[in-house]
Structure formats: structure tokens, C-alpha cells
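Just wondering, can you check both lines?
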Amino acid sequence: MEIEDEFTAFARFAGELGPAEPMRPSLLDFAEQVVARCARIGDRYGDLECNAGDHIRAVMYGIPALLPKTAKSDEAP
């Protein structure tokens, strides 16, 4: 599932979008800001080579190079 599809599903679950309503740019921006904030918080956990912030970015934005080496084989973004 693409990240925007996940964000759309979250918005529908929260009652912000109707069943057939497309994702609004403002909601997409909001979701991306929340992900970015979570990643910045995660940057403090780990070190410069491997931290929770990079893991969040890898999973949420499909950047496998940022996954921890131990998670590359068992966790696909």
C-alpha cells in the first residue's frame, strides 16, 4: 500500500474523509508533518548510523537504505 493510500485510510477512519472523498492536500500535508515530527523525535534514539528516525522515514517513505541492517530482510517498507 502506498503511503498516501494509508494516509487516506487513516483520514477516513478518523472521520475526516467520506468513503469516496479524495485526500485533501491539507490533510496530506498534515499527515506528512506528523510523520516528520515523529522522525525528528526518533533521531534521538540510536546513533548517527542507525536511529529510530531513519527507521520511520524508511518505512513511511519507502527508503530501504535507511532501514537498520537487521531489519532489511524482515521488514519491507
Summary: Residues 12 and 20 are 9 Å apart (CA to CA). The chain has one domain: 3-66. Residues 3-66 form one domain.
